[in-house]
Amino acid sequence: MQRKKISFAILSVILGLGTLLSGCGGNEEVTSTTSGNSQGQSGQFESKMKISMFNQGTFNAAAPIPPRDEDIQRQMLEKEMNIDLDMVIPQAGQATTKLNTLIAGGDIPDLIFLKSRADLAQYYDQGVLADLTPYLDQFPELQKRFGSDSWEAMSYQGKTIGVPGYDNVNGISRSFFIRNDWLKKLNLKVPTTPDELFEVMKAFTEKDPDGNGKNDTYGFIGGMNKEGNLQTYGFDSLMWMFGVNPPSAIEVKDNEPIFLFIDPKMKEALAYINKMMTAKVVDPDWVTMNSPDLLDQKMFKGKVGFMIRDARRLEPDYQQKMKEISGEVPEWIVIPPMKGPYGDQIVERKSFQGNSWAISAKADKDKIIRILSMLNYLFTDEEAYPNFAYGIKGIHWDVVDGKIKNKTSELSKEMKEKYLWVDHYRMPRRGDDAEYFSFQNPKTAEAFKNNQQYVGPTLPGNLLTPDPSDTLDADRQRFINESLVKFMTGKEPLSNWDNFLQTLDTKFDMQKYKETAIQQFKEAGLIK
């Protein structure tokens, strides 16, 4: 299959191996030889086993691994699973080199954290990783811990070759912020539709909401990264009101791929943004906003009434920055996303489950069961959860008034630095766990919680891997991004939309891209 050919070509270059490593095991029925069940119960394993873990999933690669007698989390894992855990933390930026060196030398770690699905597929193709399909039915709680889209990302060639690494965090970084003090002054209501939002932005621009008698306020500001991509900088959130987004936003409906960046609804989204540009409700500095820090500075200066920013801008440190820069703390509030003309109400799409835990193909059945039992314990044991998600009881967290309280934010700088190594074990923290973040402003936690209902499912387009034979891929993506910007700014009239689609077909071979997508979706079982 095409993706398998891609993986062989790429990884052969990376590893420089002359021959393939041993292949993965078959799909025969597997039964555990342990004395108990495989659900992470204490005392279930009679014999001690050594497990080596390549943990590039740590949240702090610079933190040294403490001695075993000080490493409480490690002690918990070793006692619960009856193992000796040998954990390797690769230095930042050196993980791939380190792992490939181990693999080339035949010293494959038993448990490997991988940061991308491409890596997972490539190493499996090389015979480095085991097929976990025969074992996972023994761990129903682990399967329920992650959503179906996360498990789909672990599927390759009809087999499950990994366990989701950790939850990605959604519903916080792309919050819909609006100046409530400006709404009150202009006697306006919180907008709920694109049309209402436009009228509010127009009023924020034209009706002097800050009362200084100057024409110096704007309804909105967004930006794009240095590569000219509109994603994550605000304009993409406006597009979601119409149910579309730039590449790689690809949906699958009725057994067909829907390329949202060229869908007819994208034309409507661009027309809406062009309407904003024409009405001059967008701060003209948007063309220079190519980093989150620059957008933050605009927020701190207090001259824009509506933005897409991280809900943590409600936290005290950021509120203080606003006061220092603008002389005031604006009454920013986080509101629900607008409900678009087709019923779409989206803060963002759930991040793709790229990271994973994989197990060495050299591991025998008993070792695979032991490792899966350890992951099951890590991710599903409620009593163990705060010890891994928050840190050490009595230091990072405690039980206050019958509830678990994360105390990390209260620690001194010295204490935080002393226990940096607890970041090696935080992977089980849930992506929607507000207590984990230890928010200091209740409004931040409220915004985070409310946003969760507007996080859409992951788009299947994230499953696609580039086709090396598609030499026009980079130029095609660049043309799409540049064209979208031209349409929304009016440099290219929307009457030329059909010409844009035709150019994609004739000059950039859009058909090849579509065929690659269909083939890979078929391999993933998303299209029959």
TrEMBL record:
It comes from the Bacteria. InterPro entries: Bact_solute-bd_prot1, SBP. Residues 1-22 form the signal peptide. Keywords: Cell membrane, Lipoprotein, Membrane, Palmitate, Signal. It holds the Pfam family SBP_bac_8. The keyword Membrane applies. This is Extracellular solute-binding protein. The keyword DNA repair does not apply.
